[in-house]
Amino acid sequence: MEKVIATGKTVEEAVQSALRQLGTTEDRVKVKVLEQPSKRLFGLIGKNAVVEVELFPEQVDPLEEAKKFLFDVFKSMNLKVQIEQFNQADYTVLNFVGKDLGILIGRRGQTLDSLQYLVNIVANRKVDHNRLRIVLDAENYRSRRKATLEELANRLAEKVIRTGKEVVLEPMTPSERKIIHTKLQDHPKVQTYSQGEEPNRKVVITRK
């Protein structure tokens, strides 16, 4: 129940009646007086006050919602995990610290990406504006994977230049393909493009 209409001999009495029905306090509601009570003369009964009392929308902290969801996931998987928080300009990184985190990362980070997708939905489901973008990491896996992919991109670019033949990489997630594309986008001798359909979409490196 988000809104009630209540009556009372006075406005205050009507408001208190509404608060009891809503199970809340006056600082969490908006009060609108629909009818003022009429004066009582010579003991005659006048008209009661009528008020409309509405709860303010629940204020939630997206980050707390996200962390609560994650700790529930960890508990269900019997994992003891701590969360480090790093605030960036336009997103927040939640980095997992603990043992046996491979199960949270998954093959090529696919489990981590799926969990990140769910966390962003949970964090923002009660937010109308200023939605929060959350990036999940585990033992700094993403930075280590980025370095590995950039090294791979350079090595394969040299192979393409040396052999003159294009190279097709293994299927990758969109975020990993972006790392390859970004690393080689200004290369003077090779270019990249993606081919195939998800989840088997691949990066192709070829000579310009």
Overall 3D geometry? elongated
Q: What structural class do helix, strand and pairing data support?
A: alpha+beta
Profile the largest sheet.
Answer: 3 strands, antiparallel
* CA-based gyration radius: 29 Å
- What is the number of beta strands? 9
Mean pLDDT: 90
What is the N-to-C succession of helices and strands? EHEEHEEHHEHEHEE
Fraction in helix: 25-40%
Which strands sit side by side, in order, in the main sheet?
1-3-2
* End-to-end C-alpha gap: 64 Å
Q: Ranges with pLDDT <50 over ≥5 residues?
A: none
**Secondary structure tally, helices:** 6
Strand content: 25-35%
Describe the structure.
The protein is α+β, with helices and mostly antiparallel strands and 208 residues long. It is 38% helix and 25% strand. The chain contains 6 helices and 9 strands, in the order E-H-E-E-H-E-E-H-H-E-H-E-H-E-E. It has helices at 11-22, 62-76, 102-105, 110-124, 141-163, 174-184, and strands spanning 3-8, 29-35, 49-55, 81-87, 92-98, 134-138, 167-168, 190-195, 202-207. The chain has a 3-stranded antiparallel beta sheet with strand order 1-3-2, with helices on one face. Strands 4-5-6 form a 3-stranded mixed beta sheet. A 3-stranded antiparallel beta sheet has the order 7-9-8. The longest helix is centred in the C-terminal third of the chain and has 23 residues, at 141-163. The radius of gyration is 29 Å and the shape is elongated. The protein starts with a strand and ends with a strand.
